[in-house]
Amino acid sequence: MVPVYKAAQEWIHISPSDLNYTFTGAMGQGSSHALGLALGCPDRRVIVLDGDGSLLMNLGTLVTIATAAPKNLIHCVCENGTYETNGAVPIPGAGRFSFTAMARAAGYPKTYEFSDLEGWQREVGRILKEEGPILVTLKVEPGESYPEDFRRLYSVERREAFRQALQRG
Amino acid sequence: MSSVQIDDSVRATDILKELKRAGVRFVVALPDRTTSERLLKPMLGDPDFRVVQVCKEDEGVSICSALHCTGHRALLLIQYTGLLDSINALRAVAVEGQNPVCMMVGLLGKEPGVPPTGSKRYGLRIVEPILDAMGIEHDLIECFGDAAKIAPAIEHAYARSQPVALLVGREPV
């Protein structure tokens, strides 16, 4: 799992694991890290929990991923319309564009969009088993606050633990 | 005159051989006129390399770093303008993240035989000082024999878990 920013702060508490890859470093880079993992580990499923502000910063990644076409990559973008980590300022064009449509136009063979939890709960199990690359837009609202720990997210020691966990299989 | 210049230039076949010797399997690339014809195009047809074409160079910094986590060696083949555009990713992902991102950087427009810091082009003159300021080791790959620097530089980068920049000073022959 490759969660970024707010999703990462939450995910490491919701589902702690050495196989959480949070070492994305610079904003916008989550999906590119996920692509590298997917290409390097074709026998493992890689899921990126991207942010809307983050993906806007690296839109070319949609074409790059669609072209590389890793079958084991699921690209989820959590769209809450704000730069939540940076003061909850609205993203440009909030609500006026579609990541789902962009991904489809970029060449993702499959895209999904969910705005209600029930629909996501019903479909997620099936989607996670499908062949990628897949983009899933998750229309979400800012949730409860989790403690922020960027040092933990970008820790080199944690990354080494990830490498070792990957090697253990 | 031109034959002397050609004889002195680094050989593309030597560069490709050294990359293979260093264990590079993935090449993450954006084209640069300095390297496209003799390096990138042959790589695209070489079964020993898997080329991943990216839309922007900072994507490549991250892809190479993640590939390292999976146990693969990668080369980021870009133009110096892309290196300048990727400073933040290099700062965060490669340097602070201690990832051995190995870059081969075409110095488009550099005058043959002139050190990058002596170029008439501002953009070229600042490349090495910026790398020095960031603590990124670099080597100039320009003349016959320079290809021998490549495999040791890559090995050193992986041993230190730090990035390295191999600056291609003119189009290989």
Describe the structure.
The complex is a heterodimer of chains A (about 170) and B (about 170). Chain A has about 170 residues and is α/β, with parallel strands linked by helices. Chain A is about 40% helix and about 20% strand. Chain A has helices at about 5-15, 30-40, 50-55, 60-70, 100-105, 115-125, 150-155, 155-169, and strands spanning about 1-5, 45-50, 75-80, 80-85, 90, 110-115, 135-140. In chain A, the strands form 2 sheets. In chain A, strands 1-2-3-7-6 form a 5-stranded parallel beta sheet, with helices on both faces. The model of chain A has no long low-confidence stretch (mean pLDDT about 95). Helix content of chain B is about 45%, strand content about 20%. The radius of gyration of chain B is 15 Å and the shape is globular. Chain B has helices at about 1-10, 10-20, 35-45, 55-70, 80-85, 85-95, 120-125, 125-135, 150-160; strands spanning about 25-30, 50-55, 75-80, 100-105, 135-140, 165-170. Chain B is α/β, with parallel strands linked by helices. The longest helix of chain B is centred in the middle third of the chain and has 13 residues, at about 55-70. In chain B, helix 9 (about 150-160) links the parallel strand 5 (about 135-140) and strand 6 (about 165-170). Classes of the chains: A alpha/beta (about 170), B alpha/beta (about 170). Chains A and B meet through helix 2, helix 4 and helix 8 of A and strand 2, helix 4 and helix 6 of B.
Any descriptors?
heterodimer, A: 169 residues, alpha/beta, five-stranded parallel sheet, two-stranded antiparallel ribbon, 8 helices, 7 strands, globular, B: 173 residues, six-stranded parallel sheet, 9 helices, 6 strands, 45% helix, disordered N terminus
Estimated helix fraction of chain A:
40-55%
Q: What radius of gyration of chain B results from the CA coordinates? A: 15 Å
Structural class of chain B: alpha/beta
- List the total number of helices of chain A: 8
What is the count of helical runs of chain B? Answer: 9
Number of DSSP strand runs of chain B:
6
Q: What's the rounded overall pLDDT mean of chain A?
A: 95
Strand order in the largest sheet of chain A: 1-2-3-7-6
